[in-house]
Structure formats: C-alpha cells, structure tokens
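Sample pair:
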Amino acid sequence: MLPDGLDLPDVLLDLAVPHEDIGQLLALRREVAGSPELVELLGRSVSGLLWRIGEPGEGTGLPVFPAAAGAMGRCFAVLVFVAALPYVRAYHRERGIPDDVSRRTLADLGRNLAVHRRRFGTTGLLVPWWPTRHFRGELYQLGRLQFERARLGERTGRAVAAAGVAAGPGDPCLSVHIPDFRGPLSPEACDDSLARAREFFARHFPATPYRVAVCHSWLLDGQLKRYLPAGSNIVRFQDRFRIAYTGAEAEDDTPVAFVFGGTETPRERLPRRTSVQRAVLDHLDAGGHWYSGHGWFSLVPE
C-alpha cells in the first residue's frame, strides 16, 4: 500500500514535503512495514479515509495516537495520505480535474508539515484531520485561496435565506480557506481565485449548485477594522462578506498562532513589525479578545 523505500522520497517531494522530514518518514515507513499490527491499522485507516470519497462530512478514518507514541503518532496520518494517493488521483481524473490543480491541492500536505516544523522543529502534522479534506476530494487549491465543498450551517444558513438567496441550512456551499505561505491576500489574488472557483465547480461538479461562499475565521473579526487601514488586504477581504454571526468564545491563541507561527513565545518577545502583528498584540495588551467571524457572500451574479 505504501511506495517502497526507493520511490517514497519522490512521492513525498511531489507532495511538497520538506526535505528535512523525508528521512524521518522513511524510517517510519520501515517501522510500519515491519509490524503486522501497523500494516493492518494503515489499511483500515485508508479504507476509512476513502469511504464515500467526494461526499463532504463523512469523517476522517484516522486513528488517534497517545502523545507517548512520539514520531509515529505525529506522522502516521502522513503515511495514510501517501497510501491513499493513487485512489485520490484516480478520483480527480474521473472528475476531469486538471493535473496542476490536483498537484497543488495535495501539496498542502507538505505545507502543513512545514507549519509543524516551523513551530516545533520536528516532523508531524499539527492538525492531522485537516488534509483529509484534500485527500477525500472535498477541497481544492485554486490560486491564492482554497475552496471546500461543504454545507451551510444552521445560523449562517438562516442568514443566507433571510437575505433572499435561494439557499438555507444544509444546502451546498463553498467554504473559503486562506492557506499559509502563499503571499499577500490581495484583492486581485482573491478575485482571481473566485473566478477560478466559479468555473471549476460548475465544470467538475455540475450536479451541485453552489450559490454561496462562506468563511469561518478570525480574519472576519470586525475588531480588526479598529487597527487596520480601510485599504488593507484583510479589511478588503472582510468587506466581501456579510457577517452572519460572531463566535461567543474568545480564540486569542488563533491569531497569535497564524500571525507569529505559534503560541509558545512570550507575548512581550513577539515582533511588532507589521500592522497585523501590532493589531493582534495591541488588542490583547489592552485586555481585548479575538473571536471568529462567520460570514458569507453570494456566488450568483446579481
């Protein structure tokens, strides 16, 4: 199910896995191959991951490892994704999805390994379930942004319906994600991604009408407008959305982790070189909190 030791490095490089992580993953491959129990677990995990591939919200198939499992626990999901790769690529081909879109979408696995290495200095995935969306055919990288085939939640769906859009709770939507290491979130880059998304999903998933895009992110916290200029990329990104609601629980660690690469460094030692860095820290220093905004906009031309 896994590529052999000679082929695995090339497969990992095609998935944008950092060079520093390849040796560790090769060693773990040998450990799995030498353990009938781990081979069986790998097979069950791949089957669970691929069950009803393409259908949103069907679970991850990934086992949960205790912290004591060390590198195997941090990396087993990576081996599951690699073993599932031929089936995922076959699903993409069946849908007519261009090879460059498939390649760039699945390369998010390497980006997530890079995020873990930047934060902890080791091989692993901070959020192992996140790449399941890519390897289940639910999410696609289209330029600067990622678009996930999802369904409207209750509160956002009610807000959409109240605005007169022909969609409501439980109906299909595209959930917008902003990946790391992709440069500025400029209006031009966002416009390009949205144009690609409209064409992509109409062509490759024609049976499902996507009338609404949503985003659930700290980037939609309206408090950011107190600190950032009106012409900033983040404010202009916010302005694309109608806010359905704002989360009730503070999520102060989330912007710190995204802006500074982690939460381990004491706040007083964090840099304040950019307007976003200053905004995040100044607000927290003043006793404020950050929250996730939940917004939407129509994909249907008015």
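The two ends are 49 Å apart (CA to CA).
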